[in-house]
Design brief:
It contains 13 helices and 14 strands. The protein has helices at 24-32, 68-71, 76-91, 115-128, 137-141, 145-154, 169-182, 200-208, 247-253, 281-293, 312-326, 339-342, 349-363; strands at residues 9-17, 39-40, 53-54, 104-109, 160-161, 188-195, 238-246, 259-268, 303-305, 335-336, 365-366, 389-390, 395-402, 406-413. Helix 3 (76-91) packs across helix 6, helix 7 (169-182) crosses helix 13 and helix 10 crosses helix 11. The protein starts with 8 loop residues before the first strand and ends with a strand.
């Protein structure tokens, strides 16, 4: 594994709010135990909708992370981002002060941002008139305000922006965050993604696309990536933050080091607004780019956390892409989709899945793909079916793909001092 003389980037902290739990350890334990976080929608009356299930965040109290007066001016996706980021900072023992603030960056992505805030403001406008629209509507709904509010809450004064590439947003945030450190633009970067759109407009819109599962009678079995009976994804929500640091700075601080970011690849399908490229070419090129960036070969990869959305086309073409990138080695690498337990967190998905990759390395345990019941002949790889698997791995790959043909792949490696 060569770093070509560039700065090494390590992970020193992680934070998560997911349908499985409101921190990393709770979410990870549920994932490896194969416990689904999907259930009936409770946020609104979904009785008239074809899809009435989702992966909702439960029992979350944002006042544990920010003042109530500030929270009222934020959409829930921002609440989740702040919580995940403060968890990550606490784990990393990071204190931001005047000595380091200008070297601390924030890259928090989102696929949609404050969609429910937009929906509610539009409803208010139509029903009550323009004078009743709230003055904080715009800063509540803007995608970049997750990064902006994390910066304000944490006092981080380095580069600050949002990456928006639909469901690849988190992967691109992590990859671009690593690049900031590599080129010396920051020493610490809060990276990841946040999403909170389990609401009427998102469920109706994705439902109109026929993208969502309608397995309402068995919510815990609705998300079934790579299974032949999959019928669509399950909308989820939450946030994940992966705290990256320049290795020298992390060592200087005595920070805990959980993994190293060694590879990053980003490509476009240039094919279709929502469907993956039929050849799997774009995703395959991103995987190969990340492997080359890490100085590895396909056979070095010990685990792939797949994009695996539980849609008919994604798994077929992602399987093809893995075969295209890995060749014969594809049949020897375990692949799982943790969306089978979390649902699809859209712009936050890649961050949660990156955390699961890191935990797989540090814990020696591969999370399963649950609901593997009927084999799909188009999906013939090792998907770690239904039960977690002990395994010592040195390199884990995280795949993310988004509407618009965006592909983002990040490789995490066991840290070797």
């Amino acid at each position: 594994m060569a770093n070509n003389g560039r700065r090494r980037v390590v992970v020193t902290g992680m934070g998560a709010v997911t349908p499985l739990g409101n921190d990393v350890e709770t979410s990870w334990r549920a994932a490896v135990e194969g416990r689904s976080g999907i259930g009936p929608i409770t946020r609104f009356d979904a009785s008239a909708y074809d899809t009435r299930i989702a992966g909702e965040v439960r029992n979350f109290n944002p006042e544990e992370y920010a003042a109530a007066k500030d929270l009222r001016r934020m959409d829930p996706f921002i609440h989740y981002a702040i919580a995940a980021s403060k968890q990550a900072a606490a784990q990393a023992n990071l204190v931001i002060n005047e000595d380091n603030a200008e070297q601390v960056a924030v890259l928090i992505g989102s696929g949609i941002g404050g969609l429910d805030t937009l929906y509610e403001a539009a409803t208010t406008l139509l029903q009550k008139g323009p004078s009743k629209v709230g003055p904080f509507t715009i800063p509540m709904l803007l995608v970049d305000l997750a990064a902006g509010q994390v910066s304000i809450q944490m006092g981080a004064k380095g580069p600050n922006f949002a990456v928006v590439s639909a469901c690849a947003s988190s992967a691109h945030s992590i990859g671009e965050g690593a690049e900031l450190i590599r080129r010396g633009a920051a020493r610490v970067v809060f990276t990841g993604g946040a999403e909170a759109c389990v609401g009427p407009l998102a469920v109706a819109s994705f439902g109109a696309m026929r993208a969502l599962s309608t397995r309402n009678d068995e919510p815990e079995k609705a998300s079934r990536p790579f299974d032949k009976l999959r019928d669509g994804f399950v909308l989820g929500e939450g946030a994940g933050t992966v705290l990256l640091e320049d290795l020298d700075y992390a060592l200087e601080r005595g920070a805990p080091i959980f993994a190293e970011v060694t590879g990053y690849g980003a490509t476009a399908d240039a094919s279709h607004i929502t469907a993956p490229a039929e050849s799997g070419d774009g995703a395959a090129r991103a995987m190969l780019m990340a492997i080359k960036d890490a100085g590895l070969t396909p056979r070095d990869i010990g685990y792939i956390n797949a994009h695996g959305t539980s849609t008919p086309l994604n798994e077929k073409y992602e399987t093809m892409a893995i075969k295209r990138a890995f060749g014969d080695a594809a049949y020897g690498v375990p692949v799982s989709s943790t969306k089978s337990v979390t649902g699809h967190l859209l712009g936050a998905a890649g961050a949660i899945e990156a955390i699961f990759c890191i935990k797989a390395i540090t814990e020696g345990l591969l999370p399963p793909t649950i609901n593997q019941e009927v084999r799909d002949p188009d999906c013939d790889l090792d998907y770690v079916p239904n039960e977690a698997r002990p395994a010592r791995i040195n390199h884990a790959m995280c795949n993310s793909m988004g509407f618009g043909g965006h592909n983002g792949v990040v490789i995490f490696s066991r840290y070797e001092g």
